[in-house]
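User: Can you help me understand a structure? I only have the sequence.
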Amino acid sequence: MNQGESVVSVLTPDPVTGNLVTYNGTRTSSERIGYALDATAASIGGVKGGLVYDLLEGGLSSWYGQADWYATRGITLSGDYDYFGRRFDGDSIFNFFHAQRDEDAHRRLAVDVTEGVDVAASGGIRTYTTTALRVLIS
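Assistant: Let's start by predicting it. Here is the structure, written out as tokens:
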């Protein structure tokens, strides 16, 4: 909850006073609830996942998942996926604009060459969406 004075519009001044129109009262900024889970088996690998539910908008705003596999004692293979739906606080002027989303998927390979030398490589893909365009970056 936010309290205190907030400018309603910087574009439309009060026609009587000529000053900016303000609101002074309690208002909801955001209400979100999230949960994450992490499980690891020492010789096999691990999984992680989580999500965030936006109570103000009534839907999931982000989630992620990750899996690690310990292929051998010195080799780990991993993959993850992240979804982030842009949300603005309930009292934000930016709610006027369409919310965008980002999606990421990545893979990793880590190799312990010797006790003092590790080599790792990763690659992935990211997409983001605008109102009329879906863009792919790899």
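Now, to help you interpret it: Residues 1-30 form one domain. The first strand starts at residue 5 and ends at 13. Let me know which part you'd like to focus on.
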